[in-house]
Design goal:
It is built from 19 helices and 10 strands. By secondary structure, the chain is an alpha+beta fold. It has 2 domains: about 170 residues, D-Maltodextrin-Binding Protein, domain 2 (3-Layer(aba) Sandwich), CATH 3.40.190; about 220 residues, 3-Layer(aba) Sandwich (D-Maltodextrin-Binding Protein, domain 2), CATH 3.40.190. Strand 4 and strand 5 form a beta hairpin. The N and C termini lie far apart (about 80 Å).
Length: about 450
């Protein structure tokens, strides 16, 4: 009896030890297609790491940003892995809100030197990598080759905004629900303001001059916003002020849009026959310009980072390493084809003949990413870094407020002039509160 008692006690202790080692990671991510696919394939990670389970919090882009910002600033510890962007990483890393990914940097198998320099640089602070890119992107024109052919219009590889506007108005057939162009209108610093800020760069506009004075009262911003509102009213879909990335993706895939200017990552979705009704008639071109030396394309990476408030940094880094590795790209290729692997992160992907053959958009994506310069985003000098955002802590609030104002202008609730005047006042007030003027 005594031996049996000892045996039972040993088993109980073993069970307790095993239970103590089991870890559950809570991962906050955006509801984009590549992240949904990551969740679907995550059983491979669990199989390789049986002591780790995964809990997913999948949110719309604007809601995700609000939740993770609140949690990171308070060290709430609600999440162990966060999907964040190129805007947040340098700000949060500098404030020690993120865990440096030293284990990945030192792991030869992870091969950190394979990360695209433009993408890696945006995720590095003082020589430390604070997030690993899940996918990288710029923006470009996606268009219906069949509709352009029917209209007798040839899309150049590097179109101007005037060409885009003329083509959009020519092809629009609202009676048959064919809209010449679909562009972001949903309010948000990472939604409509990502598109409009990149567009403004190509119109010669900028958020601030070198003394941090807002520039929404400039002729360049007036030209940008008026062009956008007029074009969308004449050639865009109804309810455009509510449309963000996912809504426009659905419109394009169901044949409603002749053109869509948005993230290069969308290329694999619009050319996938399983998801897109127009997959066999999609072409690509560079984001438009106005002949001023800047194109209307951005630079972004959705990346996985570990908040400093986590109690499970080691397990979290294992997951981050898995989801952003060369092996994960190969896994996606094996399960769903090379065209569907997350793009824009690794040099080796763009040296892979299988990928280049399967992804007709690959070279356009890489060229768009490499052509951006976050340190010199506008025609005139600026005091900030960032192509479609301004890398200062105040921008999240300012960009959202301005985005709401510009969305209201698109919806016809206020005039373009009123929107610009309000944006100027909103921005200057926040910058004054932030201590930018002495």
């Amino acid at each position: 009896m005594r031996l049996r008692s000892i045996a039972i006690g040993s088993c109980s202790l073993f069970a307790l030890a095993a239970g103590a080692q089991a870890q559950s990671l809570t991962i906050a991510t955006v509801n984009n297609g590549d992240m949904i696919r990551m969740q679907r394939l995550a059983h491979h990670f669990i199989d390789a790491n049986p002591g780790i389970s995964l809990e997913w919090v999948t949110l719309e882009e604007n809601v995700l940003r609000q939740r993770v910002t609140t949690d990171i600033a308070t060290r709430g510890g609600q999440y162990d892995v966060m999907t964040i962007g190129t805007y947040e990483v340098p700000i949060w890393g500098a404030q020690d809100w993120l865990v440096a990914l030293d284990g990945l940097v030192s792991d030869p198998a992870y091969d950190v030197d394979d990360l695209l320099p433009a993408i890696r640089g945006g995720l590095t602070v003082d020589g430390n990598l604070y997030a690993a890119p899940f996918y990288g992107e710029s923006s470009m024109v996606m268009y219906r080759t069949d509709l352009f052919e029917a209209a007798g219009i040839d899309m150049p590889e590097a179109p101007t905004w005037d060409f885009i506007a003329d083509a959009a108005r020519t092809i629009t057939d609202k009676d048959n629900e064919i809209y010449g162009i679909c562009l972001r209108g949903k309010a948000g610093w990472g939604e409509n303001m990502a598109f409009l800020t990149a567009t403004a760069n190509s119109f010669g506009a900028r958020w601030f001059d070198e003394n941090w004075e807002p520039q929404f009262d400039s002729e360049e911003w007036k030209n940008t916003l008026q062009f956008y509102v007029d074009l969308m009213n004449e050639a865009g879909p109804p309810g455009a002020s509510s449309n963000g990335f996912n809504e426009n993706l659905a419109l394009f895939q169901t044949g409603k849009c002749a053109m869509w200017i948005d993230a290069t990552v969308a290329a694999s979705f619009v050319t996938n026959p399983a998801e897109s009704q127009v997959a066999d008639s999609v072409g690509f071109a560079l984001a438009p310009d106005n002949g001023l030396g800047k194109r209307g394309n951005w630079l972004w990476a959705w990346s996985l980072a570990i908040p400093a408030g986590t109690q499970q940094a080691e397990a979290a880094e294992k997951f981050v390493g898995w989801a952003t590795s060369k092996e994960y790209l190969a896994l996606v290729a094996a399960e769903e084809g090379w065209a569907n692997v997350p793009p824009g992160t690794r040099l080796s992907l763009y040296e892979n003949p299988e990928y280049l053959s399967a992804a007709p958009f690959a070279e356009m994506t890489l060229g768009s990413i490499e052509a951006t310069d976050p340190t010199n985003p506008a025609v005139d000098p600026v005091p900030y870094v960032g192509v479609q955002f301004v890398a200062i802590p105040e921008f999240q609030g300012i960009g959202t407020a301005v985005g709401q104002t510009f969305s209201a202008a698109l919806a016809g609730q206020i005039s373009v002039d009123q929107a610009l005047e309000t944006a100027q006042q909103q921005t200057r007030s926040e910058m004054e509160r932030g201590g930018y003027y002495r």
